[in-house]
Amino acid sequence: MELLERCSGGKGYVLGYETAAYLRTGYQLPSATFAYVRGKDLDDWLSCLNLRRGEIGDLVLIPVRELPSFELIGGKLVVNIERLRLELLAWLGRGVIDLAALGQALPHGVKDSSE
After folding, report:
1. How far apart are CA 103 and CA 77, in angstroms?
2. Could you give the CA distance from residue 114 to residue 96 in angstroms, rounded to a whole number?
3. Which of 58, 60, 95, 115 has its C-alpha lying 20 to 30 A from 5's C-alpha?
């Protein structure tokens, strides 16, 4: 996340997926840092990232028209719990474990594909 901070240059971003789940629970280390960025800022992000490489892990930028709703968790902007729940449901597998750590149940009729 340090690389993300260095490259933000005042541009907004919101953390999502595994990164947001980890910041909320401290349970599973994320496989990468997932960040929503404004599509209009993507070239600036990519320019900065070509000059620096993260020491550990990957950085996944998700360009969007508008940044999603967020909450401040541990001094970081992370997607709100409703969006995080949907993101984790979309992935199932690992997402189910993160949902459990968040105390969120699977909706009725949704099965984990890892069963």
Report:
1. 20
2. 10
3. 95
